[in-house]
């Protein structure tokens, strides 16, 4: 009995201890789980505290939506993430106080479109086809005083709306650095021609844009969504750790980050690490409602007021001229001294040699002045037969992908093509058994402003080129970057392009005949400071510099195709613009096929002539 009592006395304390530990464990688990809100209970986009490292995910992600991506293989950058602790100084010290200083004097001295004007130099009563039209622009400030320096950003064009004709200046706009500018046009069609000059940004506004681009590396807010079961957290992410992390405190802080820098391309991407979530639980990327939070806090109101909406200038004389043809009945002409050669794959020349007018519109059709193009509509199936085409980049290259499919589907897209595909990042594919044609689209990697995308769909262009199969001239790559990179500086964009360039060289080592078509950035609606057309044109300059001299690579310059078109500036141009862009691109892919068809036709004509 004594032994039995002793045994009971020893087991009771152990049972009580187990119970205590169990209750303690349950308490900790309850505490943890209550700090993480279930996804199913979250319905509204609410940020509880802009200065906190973490934010509860305020968006409903249905299980059915997530399951679509459950079986996808995670990208290399996600599986190789690391945790780092970084000393983050307050952003006020990082960027400095000059951004916050009032610039009221600068505003009063900035270029004003209401006082600035343009005029025709040595105007004629009547112009002949292929004559030169020269105009001069005079920039004045808000005090109606002529400016003594240059740097203003203008768009200048001539156009005839009734003829659906337009052109940009030959050789661009000449800045004389004294407040005056010159633009010259060769008149390539007859009829009434109107001159339009638009002040996009004053030189003072350009200075603000340049400072923001060079010194504010995290102007746009992005968020990462980390999931664990039905629970999730939303945290800030960006290309730099200097982002929305207790940004406005006067003291430095140490922050734990998930470092998602791609190990191959070295493309940086950081997210603040949420508590209780591993870095591998990063499930979705999202553009953030917080928008340009850094921009609004660090740039003064007066500086922001300089970045106004585009405004047309008045003319001090005529802005409408009449063009005729005294020597022939031609209504339009390229006005070239010798015929253009057929478009073919070659090397991209540098930015200086590409300066000038690449073409013009007449009857809503783009005529290239660099090479002879071919209408593709009647022979698109012949051109693309037996080809595999990869469209890599942003939604503007996706427009090409969709438009080409529509030509085969007679404007009825297959079920694989979704209505919102122009704005999604995931891979889309389309195949035609009849023509043995396959087409694939994939969006480029970070940064991107897309509202919500699974991280399994985020792949870098260079890595995709390395992983995709190529088959000589029957495999074609279409690449477009730019629109999502206006929120970074030029060095960041330059490094991204160098990674793509290295991947192209690696591709050409084993498949030197594989053609690469690179589409430049186009104009867009000037809806916000970070979406200025000045940023886009600067990116195009870097694109030319970095991609010059690569064999079997051609750059389709759509900048002039979108600045001068009558439909205006749209990040997603109208179908008439897209049709002209694709027609130019296909002229490089299928020049031999067109020549062959032409030679067959000539041979048939000779045969008929001999028989007669």
Write structural notes for this entry:
The chain has 612 residues and is α+β, with helices and mostly antiparallel strands. It folds into four domains: 1-34; 38-97 and 221-290, no CATH class; 106-209 and 308-324, Immunoglobulins (Immunoglobulin-like, Sandwich); 351-597, Rossmann fold (3-Layer(aba) Sandwich). 30% of the residues lie in helices and 22% in strands. It has 17 helices and 27 strands. The strands form five sheets. Strands 1, 2, 11, 12, 13, 14, 15 and 24 form an eight-stranded antiparallel sheet that branches. Strand 8 (173-175) and strand 9 form a beta hairpin. The longest helix is centred in the N-terminal third of the chain and has 33 residues, at 2-34. Residues 1-12, 23-71, 97-102, 350-355, 411-423 and 593-612 have low confidence and may be disordered.
Count of all domains: 4
Which architecture of the largest domain per CATH?
A: 3-Layer(aba) Sandwich
Task: Give a short account of the largest sheet.
Answer: 8 strands, antiparallel
Uncertain stretches: 1-12, 23-71, 97-102, 350-355, 411-423, 593-612
CA radius of gyration: 30 Å
Q: Could you say what the CATH topology of the largest domain is called?
A: Rossmann fold
Average pLDDT, all residues: 78
Count all strands and give the number: 27
Helix-residue proportion = 25-40%
CATH superfamily of the largest domain: SGNH hydrolase
Distance between the termini: 131 Å
Shape: flat
Strand content: 15-25%
How many DSSP helices?
Answer: 17
Please report the first level of CATH classification, the CATH class of the largest domain: Alpha Beta
Q: Which structural category fits the helices and strands?
A: alpha+beta
